[in-house]
Design brief:
mainly alpha; Potassium Channel Kv1.1, Chain A; three-stranded mixed beta sheet; 3 strands; 8% strand; SKP1-like protein; nucleus; Skp1_comp_dimer
């Protein structure tokens, strides 16, 4: 019979408390360091992570605990699950990316960054602007200067 894992309380930006096994919380180096510094007696406040995103992060941790943890070693089913996790609207994807960065969850950060990169790959500057709702605030002269300074990137 396995020993029950210690539970850690995480507090989202809205104040919602999530109970999570310590082994799953350790997917986040930020949380792991807080636990090691004895800062986990009370709920760990995660002011930069809302409840919706924290649920996603916890589910990611649970899934990767089941599969062995390393994204390079995960099975095909977990890879499919990961793709579904990031198959969300842009705002959710960017919030998940920022949470992965803030919480220092390398594999989740890699997954979200790879997803954003795939949204950019092969697109023109205008298509990228349209995809992300970016307004071109350069004058034609400034744009030409940037093109000249970074000519290698436009060829």
């Amino acid at each position: 019979m396995s020993t029950p894992s210690k539970m850690i309380s995480l507090k989202s930006s809205e104040g919602e408390i999530f109970e999570v096994e310590e082994i799953i919380a350790h997917h986040s180096l930020t949380i792991k360091h807080m636990i090691e510094e004895d800062c986990a007696d009370n709920p760990i406040p995660l002011a930069n992570v809302n409840s919706k995103i924290l649920k996603m992060v916890i589910e990611y941790g649970k899934k990767h605990r089941e599969s062995g943890g390393e994204i390079t070693e995960v099975d095909e089913e977990t890879q499919k699950w990961d793709k579904e996790l990031v198959n969300v609207d842009q705002e959710t994807l960017f919030r998940l990316l920022m949470a992965a960065n803030y919480l220092n969850i390398k594999n989740l950060l890699d997954l979200t960054c790879e997803t954003v990169a795939s949204m950019i790959r092969g697109k023109t500057i205008q298509e990228i602007r349209d995809t992300f709702g970016i307004k071109n605030d350069f004058t034609p002269e400034e744009e030409e200067e940037v093109r000249n300074e970074n000519e290698w990137a436009f060829n």
